[in-house]
Design goal:
Blueprint lengths: L15 H14 L23 H85 L2 H23 L9 E5 L14 E4 L6 E5 L1 H4 L7 E6 L2 E12 L10 E7 L11 E4 L10 E2 L5 E3 L2 E7 L5 E5 L1 E5 L4 E5 L7 E2 L2
Antiparallel strand pairs: 1-2, 3-6, 4-5, 4-7, 5-6, 8-13, 9-10, 10-11, 10-14, 12-13
């Protein structure tokens, strides 16, 4: 609804009072200035426009829709809370039933264990009574026989254990120097047990031989499974001998790629010295008695006599004779 102000140029005295009232009404209905006008719904362009009925209906419908949405949300929230509470209640009931079953089973097992313990205690009491009865009726001579038999049995077990050989390490048998029925002496090595790993060609040397062999000295070896094939090599090192060893060892490194086998035997030779144009005899012709080296010569008259000789270089098939005999002497072999 719009209100317009109309002003008349002429007025009579009879309408002065009425015109003033209409002016005041028009002034009150006039729009306020921009700096003092309150903000209200429907204001547009500085002119007051009240809301129409359609606007009111539309706003009322929006308010009703919002109220319905709030009610529905509250109902759904309440329903969800009820569903969660129902599920939690059901889970709690299931958990209680499970714990109750566990408790009942534990109580039942405890009762069973108590019964078993009681039965075992009774069995133990009966066994003790039977033992007392048996001990009371035992013949002292039988007790003495049993004791003697026990002592004899323990002695036999000890003897049997002394006849067993137990290796101190895990490994494989690399060498066995005895077999069933062989006679051995105390502390003699009979079986060599080796750990699987790097294999070495080991030479056993006497102290005298050790004095004549050096590191890097050339050697030639022949394996027992192929005695006609020579394998050149050299002395690589002298390992520390174990306690109580009667001989020393030398590790021999063969030239080339030679496959070594456990417990394989080889004969190795090295040249300790070499002389030309010397007098020599076979080792069997040179005798040894308490460190004395001598030979037996046969004279022209057929008589034999012992002659001491001075030994030089020695090998497996020859011994150098430095003095004591002459070329042409007849030496008697054993």
């Amino acid at each position: 609804m719009s209100v317009a102000i109309e002003q008349s140029d002429t007025a009579d005295r009879g309408s002065r009072r009425s015109g003033g009232r209409e002016a005041r009404r028009a002034l009150r209905a006039a729009p306020l200035a921009e700096d003092v006008r309150p903000v209200r719904p429907g204001l547009s362009g500085g002119t007051y426009k009240p809301l129409s009925q359609n606007d009111l209906d539309r706003n009322a419908k929006r308010i009703a829709d919002i109220d319905a949405s709030i009610k529905q949300a509250r109902a759904e929230f309440n329903q969800a809370g009820a569903d969660n509470a129902a599920r939690e209640l059901e889970d709690a009931q299931i958990e209680r039933e499970r714990l109750q079953a566990v408790y009942d089973r534990a109580v039942s097992d405890q009762k069973v264990k108590q019964l078993e313990v009681q039965m075992l205690q009774k069995d133990l009491q009966r066994a003790q009574l039977n033992l007392q009865n048996v001990e009371g009726n035992l013949d002292p001579s039988l007790v003495s026989n049993v004791e003697r038999a026990r002592i004899a049995y323990e002695g036999a077990v000890k003897k049997l254990s002394r006849g067993e050989l137990v290796a101190p390490i895990d490994g494989i048998i690399a060498q066995q120097s005895v077999r069933a029925g062989s006679t051995v002496r105390a502390l003699d090595p009979v079986i060599t047990v080796a750990k699987p790993g790097e294999l070495h060609l080991v030479g056993k040397l006497t102290p005298t031989q050790m004095a004549s062999v050096d590191i890097a000295q050339k050697v030639t070896c022949f394996f027992d499974n192929d005695p006609n094939t020579a394998h050149p090599g050299f002395v690589r090192e002298f390992p520390k001998p174990p306690p109580g060893a009667t001989s020393e060892e030398a590790y021999i490194q063969l030239d080339g790629d030679v496959q070594l086998e456990v417990s394989r035997l080889a004969r190795c030779f090295t040249t300790l010295g070499k002389r030309d144009n010397v007098m020599w005899l076979p080792p069997a012709a040179v005798r040894n008695f308490q460190g004395r080296r001598f030979v037996v010569l046969q004279g022209d008259d057929g008589k034999q006599r012992r002659v001491d000789v001075e030994i030089g270089l020695e090998s497996d098939d020859r011994i150098e004779i430095k003095s004591g005999v002459n070329v042409g002497d007849v030496v008697v072999a054993p």
